[in-house]
Design a protein that fits this description.
The chain is of the alpha+beta class. The chain contains five helices and three strands. Strand 2 and strand 3 form a beta hairpin.
Protein backbone atom coordinates (compact mmCIF):
# COMPACT_ATOMS: atom_id res chain seq x y z
CA UNK A 1 0.00 0.00 0.00
CA UNK A 2 1.11 3.53 -0.66
CA UNK A 3 0.13 6.81 0.92
CA UNK A 4 -2.25 7.39 -1.97
CA UNK A 5 -4.17 4.18 -1.37
CA UNK A 6 -3.88 0.50 -2.20
CA UNK A 7 -1.96 -0.57 -5.26
CA UNK A 8 -4.20 -1.75 -8.09
CA UNK A 9 -2.42 -5.12 -8.24
CA UNK A 10 -3.24 -5.72 -4.57
CA UNK A 11 -6.92 -5.13 -5.21
CA UNK A 12 -7.02 -7.49 -8.17
CA UNK A 13 -5.21 -10.36 -6.48
CA UNK A 14 -7.61 -13.30 -6.59
CA UNK A 15 -10.50 -11.33 -8.07
CA UNK A 16 -9.55 -10.97 -11.73
CA UNK A 17 -11.37 -14.13 -12.81
CA UNK A 18 -14.57 -12.93 -11.16
CA UNK A 19 -14.27 -9.50 -12.80
CA UNK A 20 -13.72 -11.07 -16.22
CA UNK A 21 -16.72 -13.36 -15.78
CA UNK A 22 -18.85 -10.40 -14.72
CA UNK A 23 -17.99 -8.44 -17.85
CA UNK A 24 -18.85 -11.47 -19.97
CA UNK A 25 -22.24 -11.64 -18.25
CA UNK A 26 -22.99 -8.45 -20.23
CA UNK A 27 -22.28 -10.27 -23.50
CA UNK A 28 -19.48 -11.80 -25.61
CA UNK A 29 -16.34 -9.69 -25.89
CA UNK A 30 -12.75 -9.78 -27.07
CA UNK A 31 -9.83 -9.21 -24.72
CA UNK A 32 -9.39 -5.50 -25.29
CA UNK A 33 -13.08 -4.76 -24.74
CA UNK A 34 -13.06 -6.88 -21.54
CA UNK A 35 -10.13 -4.82 -20.27
CA UNK A 36 -11.89 -1.57 -21.18
CA UNK A 37 -15.16 -2.70 -19.56
CA UNK A 38 -13.39 -3.50 -16.28
CA UNK A 39 -11.57 -0.17 -16.38
CA UNK A 40 -14.71 1.81 -17.15
CA UNK A 41 -17.05 0.03 -14.73
CA UNK A 42 -14.51 0.39 -11.90
CA UNK A 43 -14.23 4.15 -12.56
CA UNK A 44 -10.59 3.71 -13.63
CA UNK A 45 -9.59 1.92 -10.41
CA UNK A 46 -8.75 -1.37 -12.15
CA UNK A 47 -6.50 -1.48 -15.18
CA UNK A 48 -6.02 -5.02 -16.38
CA UNK A 49 -2.81 -5.48 -18.32
CA UNK A 50 -2.51 -7.93 -21.21
CA UNK A 51 -0.03 -10.02 -19.21
CA UNK A 52 -2.72 -10.68 -16.60
CA UNK A 53 -5.85 -10.73 -18.75
CA UNK A 54 -4.95 -13.36 -21.33
CA UNK A 55 -3.66 -15.94 -18.83
CA UNK A 56 -6.93 -15.44 -16.90
CA UNK A 57 -8.99 -15.94 -20.07
CA UNK A 58 -7.05 -19.10 -20.95
CA UNK A 59 -7.47 -20.40 -17.39
CA UNK A 60 -11.23 -19.74 -17.50
CA UNK A 61 -11.50 -21.38 -20.91
CA UNK A 62 -9.60 -24.45 -19.71
CA UNK A 63 -12.00 -24.75 -16.77
CA UNK A 64 -15.00 -24.56 -19.11
CA UNK A 65 -16.24 -21.28 -17.65
CA UNK A 66 -15.86 -19.38 -20.93
CA UNK A 67 -15.80 -20.38 -24.60
CA UNK A 68 -13.88 -18.60 -27.32
CA UNK A 69 -14.33 -18.23 -31.05
CA UNK A 70 -12.67 -16.14 -33.71
CA UNK A 71 -14.77 -13.34 -35.24
CA UNK A 72 -14.27 -10.07 -37.05
CA UNK A 73 -14.25 -7.08 -34.71
CA UNK A 74 -15.93 -3.70 -35.29
CA UNK A 75 -12.70 -2.35 -36.78
CA UNK A 76 -12.62 -5.26 -39.25
CA UNK A 77 -9.83 -7.19 -37.54
CA UNK A 78 -9.86 -10.80 -36.52
CA UNK A 79 -10.28 -11.18 -32.75
CA UNK A 80 -10.99 -13.97 -30.31
CA UNK A 81 -14.36 -13.39 -28.64
CA UNK A 82 -15.12 -14.95 -25.27
CA UNK A 83 -18.53 -15.76 -23.89
CA UNK A 84 -19.78 -17.05 -20.57
CA UNK A 85 -20.86 -20.69 -20.46
CA UNK A 86 -23.68 -21.98 -18.23
CA UNK A 87 -21.00 -23.38 -15.89
CA UNK A 88 -19.34 -19.96 -15.87
CA UNK A 89 -22.63 -18.29 -14.98
CA UNK A 90 -23.13 -20.68 -12.04
CA UNK A 91 -19.53 -20.18 -10.90
CA UNK A 92 -19.91 -16.40 -11.06
CA UNK A 93 -23.06 -16.54 -8.93
CA UNK A 94 -21.21 -18.54 -6.26
CA UNK A 95 -18.18 -16.22 -6.37
CA UNK A 96 -20.36 -13.13 -6.10
CA UNK A 97 -22.03 -14.58 -3.02
CA UNK A 98 -18.63 -15.28 -1.43
CA UNK A 99 -17.41 -11.82 -2.38
CA UNK A 100 -20.49 -10.18 -0.85
CA UNK A 101 -19.89 -12.11 2.40
CA UNK A 102 -16.24 -11.03 2.43
CA UNK A 103 -17.13 -7.38 1.84
CA UNK A 104 -19.73 -7.53 4.62
CA UNK A 105 -17.23 -9.08 7.05
CA UNK A 106 -14.53 -6.52 6.25
CA UNK A 107 -17.05 -3.69 6.58
CA UNK A 108 -18.18 -5.02 9.98
CA UNK A 109 -14.58 -5.27 11.19
CA UNK A 110 -13.66 -1.81 9.97
CA UNK A 111 -16.66 -0.28 11.73
CA UNK A 112 -16.41 -2.29 14.97
CA UNK A 113 -16.25 -0.19 18.14
CA UNK A 114 -13.09 -1.69 19.64
CA UNK A 115 -14.59 -4.70 21.34
CA UNK A 116 -12.22 -6.40 23.80
CA UNK A 117 -10.32 -9.42 22.57
Amino acid sequence: MTDRGPRRSDLLQGTLDMLVLQTLRWGPAHGYSISQAIRSASKEMFRVETGSLYPALHRLEKRGLVRAEWKTSDNNQRAKYYRLTPAGRRHLTREQSRWDQLVEAVHALMHARGQEL
